[in-house]
From TrEMBL:
It is found in: Cell membrane; Membrane. Keywords: Cell membrane, Membrane, Signal, Transmembrane, Transmembrane helix. Belongs to the 4-toluene sulfonate uptake permease (TSUP) (TC 2.A.102) family. This is Probable membrane transporter protein. The chain crosses the membrane at residues 49-68, 135-154, 166-184, 248-273, 285-308, 314-332, 344-362. It is a multi-pass membrane protein. GO terms for cellular component: plasma membrane. The lineage of its organism: Bacteria, Pseudomonadati, Thermodesulfobacteriota, Desulfovibrionia, Desulfovibrionales.
Length: 374
């Protein structure tokens, strides 16, 4: 079954390449002719473009897959850090100046490359968390339904029109805001209204400890069990604790989250995590899997819309190496996350959000970053 899925994925990728490759080539040739760069061919075959070390790309992709599959967020953002900073594509794109075709083309390439990585991690993570009983399927589907329109609308409106400087600024600003909000949720006041989530997290952690000590515990059997589902109400239990939500709310939320994520070229997990912990009141142990499936739906739509409507150019050799790393990290993540306390999963999210948010907001709006790179 797994092998057949890989074959189908490969065929889908080849079909996309075949249908849009001429448009990519024309757009890239026009951009190179306008800028007239000099030097040895590098990224995207651009003369003088950055030469990316594929071993570094592989290791970075493992990290991206692990962090996304562990907290349900920051896959796209960490992929962006890799493409923009670690591989030097950000400074290279900026060197052509605002409004230059190569600036916009490389920026769009970064956005879509991020999404290829996150889409792969989301597919693997959702399947692994579903097997473990840590995915709220009705909630993820509701978010996914809402994400379809949002993930098609933004690429159609913005492809080829966003400079790297504007992209970096908004990228950082939204991440910083979400980090601050999640920090509030870890305070006593923020946790006061999350008693069900805390109770479920405590029960889950207790079972993990029992399992680790040698006691036989069927973790999947105690996982998510849907008790009731209607167009206006869904009820489910997780380790004996009952949760409920109105499916219409995540449909609306999914639209706005996917639109913002598609604009930023990320998976949207950094928006989904606060939504799932605050609006749905879920413990972090359910957030990663539920977020992953919702992200996967959005990624399929956003990647397709960017590549068909926007004619985005991608470095396929780099993407191939990165997807191998993503698979490795995404398999490890669900196996290790159950040993990390719920509160520390949130704190890991917050730490990354503050670092990434400050770094890219200041670089985008001030022209330089006030914090050092990794």
């Amino acid at each position: 079954m797994l092998r057949s899925n890989k074959v189908l994925l490969l065929l889908a990728v080849l079909a996309v390449c075949f249908m849009v490759q001429p448009a990519w080539a024309d757009a890239l040739a026009d951009a190179i002719a306008e800028a007239n760069p000099q030097g040895e061919p590098g990224y995207l075959g651009i003369p003088g473009g950055p030469q990316i070390n594929l071993i570094v790309a592989l290791l970075w992709a493992v990290w991206v897959g692990w962090i996304f599959s562990t907290v349900g967020a920051f896959g796209g953002i960490m992929a962006g850090v890799g493409h923009i900073t670690v591989f030097g594509l950000g400074d290279y794109a900026s060197s052509f100046g605002k409004g230059a075709k190569l600036n916009n083309l490389i920026t769009d390439s970064i956005r879509v490359s991020n999404q290829w990585m996150v889409g792969c991690s989301a597919a693997l993570s959702s399947f692994n968390y579903w097997k473990a009983g840590r995915l709220v399927l009705p909630l993820a589907i509701a978010l996914g339904i809402g994400s379809i329109a949002g993930s098609w609308l933004v690429p159609w409106l913005t492809a080829g029109k966003i400079s790297l400087k504007a992209y970096l600024g908004y990228f950082g600003l939204f991440v910083l805001f979400l980090g601050c909000y999640l920090f509030y949720e870890t305070t006593p006041k923020g946790q006061a209204g999350k008693q069900a989530a805390k109770k479920a997290a405590d029960a889950f952690q207790k079972s993990v400890k029992e399992q680790k000590s040698g006691t036989t515990v069927d973790m999947a059997e105690m996982g998510v069990k849907v008790q009731k589902f209607t167009p206006t109400m869904c009820e489910f239990t997780f380790f004996g604790v009952e949760f409920k939500f109105n499916p219409l709310i995540p449909v609306v939320g999914g639209f706005f989250i996917a639109a913002m994520a598609s604009f930023l070229g990320v998976g949207g997990g950094f928006l989904l995590v606060p939504f799932l912990t605050s609006v749905a009141g879920l413990p972090m142990y359910l957030v990663a899997g539920t977020s992953a499936l919702a992200v996967f739906v959005g990624m399929i739509n956003s990647i397709a819309s960017y590549m068909f409507l926007g004619n985005i150019t991608i470095e396929w050799s780099l993407i191939g190496v990165e997807l191998v790393g993503i698979v490795i990290g995404s398999i490890i993540g669900p196996k290790t996350s159950k040993y990390i306390p719920d509160i520390w999963l949130k704190r890991l999210f917050i730490l990354l959000a503050l670092y990434v948010g400050i770094r890219y907001a200041t670089k985008g709006f001030l022209g330089y970053s006030i914090v050092p790179p990794f």
